[in-house]
Specification:
This is Alpha-galactosidase. This protein is 16% helix and 32% strand. By secondary structure, the chain is an alpha+beta fold. The protein has three domains: 272 residues, Beta-galactosidase, Chain A, domain 5 (Distorted Sandwich); 275 residues, Alpha-Beta Barrel (TIM Barrel), CATH 3.20.20.70; 132 residues, Chondroitinase Ac, Chain A, domain 3 (Sandwich). It has a ten-stranded mixed sheet, with helices on one face. Strands 32-31-30-29-25-24-23-33 form an eight-stranded parallel sheet.
Length: 721
């Protein structure tokens, strides 16, 4: 039988001889090794010798061969010349794999296959799967494949793997036999339900203690990407289903930037290196984010009058009112529903007269009234029977559902862009909120006709088309999306933490975790909107995190459930953060006594800060946290209660000429001030409050807030010049 080969091209420094084809990467006390001939990789803690992760990394495929049979094939290494290693893949073709070592880790830069024609149909591609010896399988999991995942680690970290309630860290046996979507296909991929944020992520981390490895995509996959767990072991699975939709007619298949691998002492730090491998393009225009108030807080209650929401938005000093679902006549139409909103244009003009910007919600790929849009079945994603696929937010088979556009179709592409341009011209929105990228059919159900737009590229191309069309009308329009993958950064300006309704009953812990994962984008040139829950009683925790993230956002109702006004205490807190938030997008988190999580416990935000150019420009202080901040930029601050501090210029909070100090509970805070401030004013929505207490003595400024004052106080403004 004729042998065929992959060729892996490696720089000489990756190994010293053909016989020792092992890649090494060391970071501090950690070493990553990958023996290519045996495809055995591992992460070792050097000081103890403990192996915190092991598994394989060469690709394997579940294919339908030319005889119509399902077959498993995996690349296998054989000795080769110095500088390369050959891999046998049965008799299916030839190819090469280019691997690079960088300052941040290991990059699998290119995988190219030249299939022997006719090419097999790829059902699934795997990274981290292998055929175990028959004698090594004592318990066979529920799994209809002859191979198994082989990544072994005590701990896994997958940001927001489940949402209600949120969980991101797992022991290997916590998953059961599950598939966790890493990209856009959460509800349709048998994953635990997760709406928008933080998907797509396209990476995961594994390890424990002080040793973690992160493995993620370097380019947007053309398959639907998930973490598959079987028998307490994991792997990446890329779903193609070319057995349903047809194999590539060409002999050559290539994957650019297949994997990026980083290691560090925590999962968050390993992720941070992964993000750092995607520097912000100098061509990306950084848009100054704006505070957002979303009509969904009232519209979800079927209370649709717009002017009262505009009044409330203005009252709490939000800058942008976003018209959410269902402002349109039908899903995806882009036309205002004048039956539900008979005074729609007058209401929009009224909101603008209050000094508010206008934003609009827009679906990505859903459409209901195809005839009105000039869309035919040739412009829709079809199932295996040639019928249009339907999608909805949770893929409930009996729920209301909508057709899904196939962006292979020139008519569908033109419709998406024309709808966006018309909306831009009609309403002149300053922000477009894009939704339901996670509500599209996965490759088991249907795919775009053009393979270029399949897998995770489906949603990306929709976001790109809409962003391109919107910015052709107004280059400064803000494109808001949800996913935290750095690969989406080129097509979005702001990321929202989504409605904390998805966190169910634990907004406090959930928003903390989501804030930690959102901060991975802090060097990517996008704004981060803290969003909100639907309950005013949970809003203080959300706002204290938002102070660090930067940009306030809300889906809160403008009245309580009983129809009574929102208490002034809650409104004043929103007013203060909307008035004084940081309007920059490049920063780094300072964790202080917070914890980004591990196998021993979930993430916990206690006191943490925002660094800009190494200057501490915002700080949140919790009452129940360790108050010893010695050695940190916040050293010398003493407090009782919960507080946030925000610099109003580019200087640190300890050197700014104007400092905003926001109390979130009754208490006292003492700040080092060598000289007595020029002025300290207590402010709220109704203006300056004259009876709020403050004093300066012996180089210390003390601010005190009583429970009675808290109801009317937004915060203090401390001025030194």
């Amino acid at each position: 039988m004729k042998k065929c080969f992959f060729t892996i091209l490696l720089s000489q420094w990756l190994y010293t001889s053909a016989a020792a084809q092992t890649i090494h990467h060391t970071s501090g006390d950690l070493r990553f090794d990958w023996e290519l001939p045996s495809d055995k990789a591992s992460l070792t803690v050097l000081s103890t010798g403990a192996v915190n992760w092991r598994g394989s990394l060469l690709p394997s495929f579940w294919i339908k061969n030319v005889q119509g049979q399902l077959q498993y094939v995996k690349a296998r290494a054989v000795p080769g010349d110095a500088g390369s290693v050959h891999l046998v893949l049965d008799s299916l073709g030839t190819g090469k794999m280019v691997i690079e070592q960088t300052s941040w880790g290991i990059r699998v830069r290119e995988l190219t296959l030249s299939w022997r024609l006719p090419a097999p149909a790829i059902v699934e591609m795997y990274i981290g799967a292998s055929m175990p010896p028959a004698t090594a399988v004592n318990v066979k999991p529920v799994w209809d494949r002859p191979f198994l995942p082989d990544w072994q680690s005590l701990g896994y970290c997958l940001p927001g793997a489940k949402a209600g309630t949120v969980q991101s860290y797992f022991r290997m046996w916590d998953f059961g036999q599950s598939d966790i979507a890493l990209g856009n296909f959460g509800p349709s991929m048998s994953s635990p339900y997760g709406a928008a944020f933080p998907r797509p992520v396209l990476f995961t981390a594994m390890g424990e203690g002080k040793g973690w490895i992160s493995i993620g995509a370097g380019d947007i996959p053309d398959g639907a990407m998930s973490l598959s767990m079987r028998a307490a072991r994991g792997c990446f699975r890329y779903l193609y289903r070319e057995d349903l939709w047809g194999a590539s007619p060409t002999a050559t298949r290539s994957w650019n930037d297949l994997l990026r691998i980083t290691i560090d002492t925590t999962a968050y730090a390993a992720f941070g290196k992964y993000y750092g491998s995607f520097p912000v393009s100098p061509e990306k225009k950084t848009i100054t984010p704006v505070s957002v108030w979303n009509t969904w807080g009232m519209w979800r209650k079927r209370k649709y009058p717009i002017p009262p929401i505009a009044d409330f938005t203005s009252q709490v000093q939000s800058e942008m009112m976003v018209l959410d679902d269902p402002w349109e006549t039908s899903q995806g139409s882009g036309q205002p529903d004048l039956q539900r909103f008979p005074d729609f244009f007058a209401d929009v003009a009224y909101a603008r007269s209050k000094g508010l910007g206008i934003g609009v919600w827009e679906t990505l790929g859903w459409i209901k009234d195809t005839a009105a849009a000039g869309i035919t079945r040739n412009d829709l994603v079809l199932d295996i029977h040639g019928e249009p696929c339907l999608g909805n937010w949770n893929f409930d088979p009996t729920g209301e559902a909508w057709y899904c556009l196939d962006i292979s179709s020139p008519r569908a592409r033109a419709f998406v862009q024309e709808r966006t341009r018309k909306t831009m011209q009609l309403l002149q929105p300053g922000l477009i909120k894009l939704d339901f990228g996670y509500g599209l059919p996965n490759p088991n159900m249907g795919v775009p006709v053009n393979p270029l737009y399949r897998g995770e590229r489906y949603s990306y191309e929709l976001v790109r088309l809409i962003s391109e069309a919107a910015k052709s009308v107004n280059p400064d329009v803000v494109i808001l999306y949800y996913g935290i993958s750095p690969l989406w950064v080129p097509v979005m300006d702001m990321v929202s933490l989504d409605d904390q309704g998805d966190l169910w009953y634990d907004t406090r812990q959930g928003h903390q975790e989501w804030s930690i994962w959102a901060s991975l984008l802090s060097q990517q040139g996008v704004g981060l909107s803290g969003s909100s829950s639907y309950d005013w009683l949970t809003d203080d925790e959300v706002l204290m995190n938002t102070v660090i993230l930067g940009t306030p956002g809300a889906v809160l109702p403008s009245e309580l459930d009983n129809g009574k006004p929102v208490p002034a205490q809650f409104q004043n807190r929103r007013w203060a953060v909307n008035k004084w938030y940081r309007r920059t997008v490049l920063w780094e988190p300072l964790w202080l006594n917070s914890y980004t999580g591990g196998v021993d416990g979930p993430p916990q935000l206690r006191c943490w800060g925002r660094l800009e150019h190494k200057q501490l420009t915002a700080l949140t202080l919790h009452e129940n946290a360790d108050k010893n901040l010695k050695g940190s930029p916040a050293e010398g601050i003493r407090w009782t209660g919960n507080w946030s501090l925000i610099s109003q210029d580019d200087n640190a909070i300890t050197a700014t000429h104007t400092l905003a100090v926001i109390p979130f509970s009754a208490g006292t805070i003492t700040l080092p001030y060598a000289q007595k401030p020029l002025k300290v004013t207590a402010q709220g929505m109704n203006g300056v409050i004259s009876n709020a207490g403050w004093s300066w003595k012996n180089g210390l400024l003390t601010l005190n807030v009583t429970p009675a004052q808290l109801a009317q106080l937004g915060g203090f403004l401390v001025t030194t010049k």
